[in-house]
TrEMBL record:
The keyword Acyltransferase does not apply. It comes from Cellulomonas iranensis. The keyword Cell membrane does not apply. Coiled coil: none annotated. PANTHER family: POTASSIUM CHANNEL PROTEIN 2-RELATED-RELATED, TRK SYSTEM POTASSIUM UPTAKE PROTEIN TRKA. The lineage of its organism: Bacteria, Bacillati, Actinomycetota, Actinomycetes, Micrococcales. This is Trk system potassium uptake protein TrkA. PROSITE patterns: RCK_C (PS51202), RCK_N (PS51201). Residues 1-117 form the RCK N-terminal domain.
Amino acid sequence: MRVVIAGAGSVGRSIARELLAHDHEVTLIDRQPSAMRVAQVAEADWLLADACELPTLREVRADECDVMVAATGDDKANLVVSLLAKTEFGVPRTVARVNNPKNEWMFDDAWGVDVAVSTPRIMTAMVEEAVAVGDLVRIFTFHQSKADILELTLPEGSPLAGVRVGQVEWPADTVLACIVRDARPLAPSPDDTLEGRDELLFVTGHEADEQALERLLTRGPASS
């Protein structure tokens, strides 16, 4: 896979190292000479230029890349890079970093963004997940499909503790995707039994009733 990353700061370099470790081809672009820390990611191709300009994207052959990652510290630049990559070069997949959560609403397909990654929002979700038992936490939203990944740690006293997965009638547009128990991820089957302190990961559609899901997990079915 060929990936172009706009923004060679700590975030961009970290992404590049991970991709290179998985044998992908990576090009890093940054307009700041101070960001040209080539020795830190020596296996990548580097370009000192403004990724918001068409000649720069032509130089890195954006039309031949599989993914464009807009990872600068400037939300405006990330939107421009994504839009140019999608509309001018037909890049199949664009991933954009959201620095200010207030700008998150703009990072959608109208600006050519396939996947928006809001670091502050993810960190907030991780903090909530670390301290909350019995509270439903949104971990991630897929901007293209509007599906969500939700997490809840099942309370010890939940009526669902001891119940088999196949006996639970989940709300519409809700799928139990994973059970994490004792730091081990389990693919849930109908015969698996839920236990208190299980970390449950759900994938939900954009019309799913999150409040109904949280009530079910903490209070049990409405009829009980």
